[in-house]
Design a protein that fits this description.
Mean pLDDT: 84
Radius of gyration: 24 Å
Number of domains: 3
CATH topology of the largest domain: 2-enoyl-CoA Hydratase, Chain A, domain 1
Structural class: alpha+beta
Helix content: 10-25%
CATH superfamily of the largest domain: 2-enoyl-CoA Hydratase, Chain A, domain 1
CATH class of the largest domain: Alpha Beta
Distance between the termini: 35 Å
Number of strands: 36
Low-confidence stretches: 1-22, 28-34
Number of helices: 12
Length: 511
């Protein structure tokens, strides 16, 4: 079955998002006027500039162009990519995207503006982007030769999407490498929820985005599987970009009997969303997350984690700890404005930080495999790597690596992606891309390319020096084995790593 997964959140529309759905509270009834005296005093200057441009500019601009430019200047001055003004047409497009009805063609990625750059947050499975191998974290440098440095997500989205069947060429930067890709745009749509029963009576539910019908659909699916008495639940929030506050709260309320779910704090906002009548699931739950899990997905994850209702598996989430409100403006436009920070039940704000999973497992298949093993009481991740080959095996299934492992100075070296997928650790590259901190649980080791000096759990340590190969940072496997408590067996050019977890099933994380 094709999984039109979450991603779409942006799906491709790619841009979709440029509209960055995120965490939204419902629209207010009307816009509020300003009574700021300094603002009123500046109106004559604004009018003077406006009139001069209309009268003297080399080609007479339209008044609507100037007005929209002024509004975009106001929102842009905040350096907040989530506070934007939508024209009536843009707002309708935004609503369509938020509810999975994209109505346009794209390549299948969710994008966001990070500083001066456009970064992919999520990739829709089965989309042109997925087929081309694009990944969350990739930067898009240009579109059809037009640089995206300094562009907003909306501007990038406009360039990327287009008519069905047409092609678009983008330049992608991944790590220290950059490469061009030409993709054919396809029409895409995103179901809110997809579900199926996995072997072993494990109920698997993908929540693609928290659209306006998410709460009702969730309750239907929940009831369906509760009647089948599953032995475990998997809630897949990977690449879920978020949606409406009310819907996410409604979903969380079904699994948390009582207590605070999320708290919003802002200049004019202080609201606590709670649960008082939810019921604990009769079987254990695993939540899957990654760097594309944002906003709504993070609120759900944070609540379930803080109340020990689920084991969280995957990689660090996106880190969107702010909320937006839709405010109607004159003429049919809408201002999406950030109004609050939000906090998990334990009082954590995850803006620019994200949520660290209980178990770090990277890749497309490995997190799901680990979830099934945990729920089935088979708590190990067994991976066999072969020097010089990108082909590997994991828990009996095939695994394709981004770079073949190599031997140097008698030491086995692997890429950061392989370290994450094969060993279950969490690599966090540094700003200059030569540094990396690799974490596992509460432990961490920091290494630098070309240096044998490392810091392991706060103490200096000598390690084989990392190095770059084909633009990818290669790290020694030897210091990672004790960090994660992994067993290693070498047989010629074959290396087998077993990451075992001592707790039966998930009790250690949920109690």
């Amino acid at each position: 079955m094709v999984s039109w997964k979450k991603m779409i959140a942006a799906l491709v529309v790619v841009a979709v998002l440029g509209f960055g759905a995120g965490w939204l509270v419902e629209p207010t009834v009307s816009a509020q006027g300003s009574s700021n005296s300094s603002f009123r005093a500046s109106l004559p200057l604004f009018q003077e500039v406006y009139n001069t441009l209309l009268k003297d500019y080399v080609t007479r601009p339209s008044s609507s162009t100037l007005l929209e430019g002024a509004i975009n200047g106001l929102t842009g001055s905040l350096n907040d990519p989530y506070t934007v003004y939508y024209t009536p047409a843009q707002y309708q497009q935004f609503l369509n995207q938020l509810n999975g009805n994209l109505g346009i063609a794209g390549i299948g990625v969710e994008i966001n503006q990070v500083g001066q750059f456009i970064v992919i947050e999520a990739v829709l499975p089965g989309s042109p982007a997925a087929k081309a191998g694009l990944e969350a974290g990739d930067e898009i440098l240009d579109v059809n030769g037009k640089s995206l440095v300094g562009a907003t997500a909306d501007q990038a989205a406009t360039l990327i999407r287009g008519k069905q069947g047409t092609q678009v060429t983008i330049t992608v930067e991944r790590g220290t490498r950059s490469f061009p890709l030409t993709l054919t745009r396809e029409p895409l749509s995103l179901p809110t929820i997809e579900d199926r029963m996995l072997p072993g009576k494990i109920a698997y539910i993908q929540l693609n985005q928290v659209s306006g019908d998410a709460g009702a659909l969730w309750q239907e699916v929940l009831a369906k599987y509760q009647a089948l008495h599953p032995k475990g639940w998997i809630l897949d929030l990977r690449n879920d970009p978020g949606g409406y506050v009310s819907q996410a709260v409604q979903i969380a309320q079904t699994m948390i009997p009582s207590g605070t779910i999320v708290t919003f704090k802002g200049q004019i906002t202080h609201q606590v969303y709670s649960s008082s009548s939810g019921q604990s699931l009769s079987a254990p739950m695993v939540v899957l997350v990654n760097g594309g899990s944002a906003s709504a997905a993070e609120i759900l994850t944070g609540a379930l984690m803080d109340y020990h209702k689920a084991v969280v598996i995957g990689t660090q989430t996106f880190g969107k700890g702010i909320a937006q409100e839709l405010v109607p403006m004159q003429g049919g436009g809408v201002l999406k404005v950030t109004i609050a920070d939000w906090y998990t039940p334990d009082g954590q704000n995850i803006e620019h930080v994200g949520i660290r999973p209980n178990l770090f497992v990277d890749g497309n298949n490995a997190p799901l495999v680990m979830a099934e093993k945990l729920l089935g009481d088979q708590t190990s991740l067994t991976t066999t790597l072969t020097v010089g080959s990108v082909g590997a095996t994991q828990n009996g299934g095939p695994l394709t690596l981004d770079q073949a492992p190599v031997l140097k100075g008698g030491q086995l070296y692997v890429s950061l992606d392989t370290a994450a997928q094969a060993l279950g650790v969490d690599p966090v590259p540094g700003a200059n891309k030569a540094d990396v901190t690799i974490r596992y649980g509460k432990g961490a080791i920091a290494m630098t390319a070309g240096s044998t000096s490392a810091v392991l759990n706060g103490q200096k340590e000598n390690v084989p020096a990392p190095f770059f190969l084909d633009g990818l940072l290669m790290v020694p496997a030897s210091p990672l084995v004790p960090l994660a408590g992994i067993s290693e067996t070498a047989n010629g050019t074959h290396y087998t790593f077993v990451n075992s977890f001592s707790q039966p099933a998930i009790a250690a994380y949920t109690h």
